[in-house]
Amino acid sequence: xxxxxxxxxxxxxxxxxxxxxxxxxxxxxxxxxxxxxxxxxxxxxxxxxxxxxxxxxxxxxxxxxxxxxxxxxxxxxxxxxxxxxxxxxxxxxxxxxxxxxxxxxxxxxxxxxxxxxxxxxxxxxxxxxxxxxxxxxxxxxxxxxxxxxxxxxxxxxxxxxxxxxxxxxxxxxxxxxxxxxxxxxxxxxxxxxxxxxxxxxxxxxxxxxxxxxxxxxxxxxxxxxxxxxxxxxxxxxxxxxxxxxxxxxxxxxxxxxxxxxxxxxxxxxxxxxxxxxxxxxxxxxxxxxxxxxxxxxxxxxxxxxxxxxxxxxxxxxxxxxxxxxxxxxxxxxxxxxxxxxxxxxxxxxxxxxxxxxxxxxxxxxxxxxxxxxxxxxxxxxxxxxxxxxxxxxxxxxxxxxxxxxxxxxxxxxxxxxxxxxx
Length: 422
What we know:
By secondary structure, the chain is α/β, with parallel strands linked by helices. The protein has helices at about 5-15, 20-30, 60-80, 90-100, 115-125, 140-145, 160-165, 170-175, 190-195, 220-230, 245-260, 275-280, 310-315, 335-340, 355-365, 370-385, 385-400, 405-420; strands at about 55-60, 80-85, 105-110, 130, 150-155, 180-185, 200-205, 235-240, 265-270, 285-290, 300-305, 320, 345. It is built from 18 helices and 13 strands. It has a seven-stranded parallel β-sheet, with helices on both faces. A six-stranded parallel β-sheet has the order 10-11-9-8-12-13. Helix 4 links the parallel strand 2 and strand 3. It is globular and about 65 Å long.
């Protein structure tokens, strides 16, 4: 007998199904849905199913899809198959259109109603379904399991906050998790949370993001930035969230007393925050990258409010502050700068990437900055001593290299799932 929570969810999602098209139309108006492809959200498609084995990989948004790219490439090279990638955001769809290899295709994930998920699964009929991180949709997961699709949670992640929420509905969580054949967790702490919720066959294999290739960079854009900045010292604050610039900007002011021509580059996690950041800058001279402007000699703060250019900015300096860590967000991916030889400075909240931050900070021997004064202290040392900044950057790169291997282990698990299904 299904737990009451699951039964109630299925009934409610069925009752609310007629309202979904109007909800999608409102999201289209806000730029949150792809107008030409909105039928995919209802489980319809214009694409034929590829012949043969189809492996389905689902990631919620950009981060999960990027993490899955090396795995998708490895699956296509190792297994005679095609790969279907689903995600739920316009930005992730655009990214997949640009970066998916031959043999893989993208669809928007259907809304989690019984009818939409049934149409999706009836058309695509995947043999295996791989859910990246922790994007859990009960109807989709349990409908797939009922059709005999072998399911796995890969690169599995669950914060303490999410775990505590699921504990209030432990029977419901156990029923959902029982649909998975296996769970490949990023670290032992995460694995313990999934086990406590009744998830079967939990293994710790590390993070797929550790195997991701280095972020790309456009050589022309990179050269233009380097020419514009010249030999000015740079403080880079990447992937910042609301509430962090209030610490970064005073650190900029303090550092400017020692380095008068310091340029601070702020790359917000959400580009729509650019105007708010500019307001916080007050009388500090700012320029926004989205306007097409490059920093000049008078620019104090450069707001890089564009998508897909982190590779350029991480190559601009040998150290950076990684955002989402001064507030209770849990930190953004520190492996992206580390792989480019850019040392990582981080606040106290790193639970999204616990193992990665621990490894990098241990390799660097420095980098934990919990306040404005600590950012100023460490950044001052690194700006004054480029050799030390280079040493920390090299240590970060070496630390990141030691975390790899999750892609090969995940491929092995998928092969076994396919063999078992056959």
